[in-house]
Amino acid sequence: MNFTALELRQLALPLVAFIALLGAGSALVTWTESRLGAQGSVLADARGERSRARERLMRIAEEEKEVKEKLEVYQHLKTLGILGDERRLEWADAMTRIRTERELPDLRYRVERQRPLVSVPGKPAPVDFYASTMRVELLLLHEGDLLRFLGDLRQSGNAYYSVRSCALTRTGQPAAVAGVAPRLRAECEIDLITIMDRAAKT
């Protein structure tokens, strides 16, 4: 198809407009794609930040739960009187009370000097464990008296009572008085463990 000079002049303006619109459309597409890419990057950053914030919140919640559990244990130990200095007067009162309530015929004990426990696995750095060994001798009518004595001792608090050993022997009482005289002698070694929190003292 051949165009005359007049027709070419008439088509020149629409052709220029078409080329301009084509260029504008191409630029618009390029600009839209770049904006979409930038917005996608912003969205990815926002999602990453939200994920990191969620992880931080989960860690905080776990740490809060752990602190709450440790605080409950601490309060329980404090209630039992295990925290702080050893309480020898309270130990003596407990032994007297148990002997009276259980009507034990003979109860003798000796508490040795306090010593640190150096091998406590997993203990917190500012916490120290101490033990005072109590050597107990008591006369019993039967084995159940020993179990009740140890149970009463643990219930008395003021320390954690860890029984290291207990030996039972017969007293050799004659059969004629077997019904009223103690037939057994118990010798026990019991560690009275207390906990010292250095951080709480400062």
Brief synopsis:
With 202 residues, the chain is α+β, with helices and mostly antiparallel strands. The chain has helices spanning 5-80, 88-102, 143-155, 198-201, and strands at residues 106-111, 115-117, 127-140, 160-170, 184-197.
Structure description:
The protein is 53% helix and 24% strand. The chain has 202 residues and is α+β, with helices and mostly antiparallel strands. Strands 1, 2, 3, 4 and 5 form a five-stranded antiparallel sheet that branches. The N and C termini lie far apart (103 Å).
Morphology call: rod-shaped
**Elements, N to C (H/E):** HHEEEHEEH
Q: What structural class do helix, strand and pairing data support?
A: alpha+beta
Q: Which consecutive residue ranges, at least 5 long each, have pLDDT under 50?
A: none
N-to-C CA distance: 103 Å
Helix amount, in percent?
A: 40-55%
Predict the CATH topology of the largest domain: Alpha-Beta Plaits
**Average pLDDT across residues?**
81
Helical run tally: 4
Characterize the quaternary organization of these chains.
Answer: single chain
CATH class of the largest domain: Alpha Beta
Q: What is the second-level CATH architecture of the largest domain?
A: 2-Layer Sandwich
What proportion of the residues form beta strands (DSSP E)?
15-25%
Number of strands: 5
Query: Which radius of gyration do the C-alpha atoms yield?
Result: 42 Å
Number of domains: 2
Q: Biggest β-sheet, characterized?
A: 5 strands, antiparallel
Tag the structure with descriptive keywords.
202 residues; alpha+beta; Alpha-Beta Plaits; 2 domains; five-stranded antiparallel β-sheet; rod-shaped
